[in-house]
Backbone:
């Protein structure tokens, strides 16, 4: 097992320098005091009990007790500091992974199983925390104690040290075999648990409950989940078997070592005090090894999860995010020979997160040599059959996708060169599928404009024909809309998205089927509101209803990602 990746923890440990220094100092103090205890008992036996000097014996026993208490105190404080180091380091890992996942391009999220990603963000850092706390709370301290115990034992009886060290190689091969099986079973358990969590994430929500009752899939889902549970159980049985085999090896090692040390002392005619000290020191040598065997199950899980964390942190972020700002309001959006294809299935994510396997061959172009401009202040209709590339074009226009070739321009600047804030200010979009938080109306709107006041929020809701939502419920803007907005109708969710546009007020507005779920009366009222409040904005409208696009200044018709309103160049 290659543990070199543990060195990658160094940047996350850097802020803990002062705690690390105090931790190591306390460990050394605890270890020195710990190995001094057997030496004090040796004096109590040889200089006190063996010669009938009771007072001397009691004095040395008192010294041993004091040393033991001090060692325990220093060790406890060190372990508490080590645990805090582990918690803080894990917090830094969790934050780094969240920042990485949120920075990854749209393709990663489109190709990944949401439940598996959530599991990676929540469960992996917790398991890694157990590893880090074991390293800093137990293993380093026990390792220091082991080294000092070996040195001290060597000063008393070199033959005993030789016996202790000679036993170790006898267990290397079986321990390696057990640990290899332990890690294999641990990885299988991790993969099986991740699959089960994805299964639950997909089904245990509002939409899943409705579908389950509509299609009567209760039995099928129970059977499917039982298969996941059985896979987890099989992996756990294999993992536990390997763990207890490893534990037997370490326990047998300790028994043989202690017996060998006693034999060495007896053969060399050691005093009773020396034998007592040797026995205590041998225990201090083997205790860390036994402890590692006992903690092997948790350590293997932590190592696996730490590997999985760094696998996410190593994913390349291909999305360009510039730093340029717009000096004035954005007016014109231009596509300059834009080509775009989606990444091959599975190529933008990790194998154990992928929603589908990697396919052979390269996907076709979703957008092909697309060139057009939105006239400032005008309305452009984007039409075409399903699958023509309309939504993909809209996502390119807001920067969710970035062109494989060509450029999307805001005035004279490449959209990819703009900062996130400038991009948000320049262009906004109402999507077909509206993202709704399980939170209040206020929280669902301030994600578009965090500094918005309640008056501005209520004004945006009224413009979006959602005034009843703040007038009828007793809690007004504090009304919770429910998981994925289940307390709202489809039309209300869509109008909520429009309210975000009214609130953020971008210069260029893209409406992707923005009124598809509305009745004719509400649609007419909303069109009047949009005409009034978005007057002067540059607009790109995707719609199938003739009433939505009948007043457009220009129309672009797409088919298979190409503009068929005029001749299109040959595909490369």
Residues:
């Amino acid at each position: 097992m290659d543990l070199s990746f543990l060195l990658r923890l160094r940047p996350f440990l850097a802020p803990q320098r002062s705690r690390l220094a105090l931790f190591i100092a306390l460990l050394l103090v605890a270890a020195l005091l710990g190995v001094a205890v057997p030496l004090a008992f040796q004096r109590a036996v040889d200089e006190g009990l063996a010669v009938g000097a009771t007072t001397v014996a009691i004095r040395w026993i008192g010294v041993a007790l004091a040393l033991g208490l001090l060692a325990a105190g220093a060790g406890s404080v060190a372990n508490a500091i080590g645990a805090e180091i582990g918690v803080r380091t894990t917090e830094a890992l969790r934050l780094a992974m969240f920042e990485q996942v949120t920075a990854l391009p749209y393709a990663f999220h489109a190709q990944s199983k949401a439940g598996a990603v959530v599991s990676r963000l929540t469960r992996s850092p917790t398991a890694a925390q157990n590893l880090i706390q074991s390293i800093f709370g137990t293993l380093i301290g026990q390792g220091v104690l082991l080294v000092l115990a070996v040195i001290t034992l060597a000063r008393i009886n070199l033959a005993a040290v030789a016996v202790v060290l000679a036993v170790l190689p006898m267990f290397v091969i079986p321990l390696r075999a057990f640990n290899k099986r332990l890690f294999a079973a641990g990885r299988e358990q991790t993969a099986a648990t991740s699959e089960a969590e994805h299964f639950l994430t997909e089904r245990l929500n509002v939409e899943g409950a409705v579908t389950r009752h509509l299609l009567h899939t209760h039995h099928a889902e129970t059977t499917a989940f039982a298969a996941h549970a059985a896979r987890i159980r099989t992996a756990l049985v294999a993992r536990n078997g390997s763990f207890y085999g490893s534990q037997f090896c370490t326990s047998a090692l300790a028994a043989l070592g202690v017996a060998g040390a006693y034999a060495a002392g007896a053969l060399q005619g050691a005093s009773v005090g020396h034998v007592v000290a040797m026995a205590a020191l041998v225990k201090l040598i083997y205790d860390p090894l036994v402890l590692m065997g006992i903690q092997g199950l948790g350590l293997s899980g932590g190592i696996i999860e730490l590997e999985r964390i760094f696998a996410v942190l190593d994913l390349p972020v291909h999305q360009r995010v510039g730093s340029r700002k717009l000096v004035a309001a954005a007016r014109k959006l231009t596509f300059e020979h834009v080509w775009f294809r989606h990444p091959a299935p599975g190529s933008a994510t990790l194998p154990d997160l992928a929603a589908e396997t990697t396919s052979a061959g390269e996907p076709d172009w979703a957008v092909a040599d697309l060139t057009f401009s939105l006239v400032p202040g005008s309305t452009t209709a984007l039409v075409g059959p399903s699958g023509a590339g309309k939504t993909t074009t809209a996502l390119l226009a807001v920067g969710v996708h970035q062109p494989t070739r060509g450029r999307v321009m805001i005035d004279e600047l490449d959209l990819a060169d703009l900062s996130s804030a400038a991009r948000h200010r320049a262009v906004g979009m109402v999507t077909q599928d509206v993202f709704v938080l399980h939170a209040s109306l206020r929280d669902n709107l301030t994600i578009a404009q965090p500094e918005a006041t309640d008056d501005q929020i209520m004004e945006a809701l009224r413009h979006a024909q959602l005034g009843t939502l703040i007038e009828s419920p007793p809690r007004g803007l504090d009304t919770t809309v429910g998981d994925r907005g289940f307390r709202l109708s489809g039309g209300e969710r869509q109008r909520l998205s429009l309210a975000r546009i009214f609130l953020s007020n971008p210069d260029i507005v893209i409406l992707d089927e923005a009124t598809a779920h509305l009745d004719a009366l509400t649609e007419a009222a909303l069109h009047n509101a949009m005409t009034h409040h978005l007057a002067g904005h540059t607009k790109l409208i995707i719609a199938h209803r003739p009433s939505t696009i009948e007043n457009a200044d220009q129309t672009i018709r797409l088919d298979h990602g190409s503009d068929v309103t005029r001749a299109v160049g040959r595909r490369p």
Notes: Residues 567-572 have pLDDT under 50 and may be disordered.
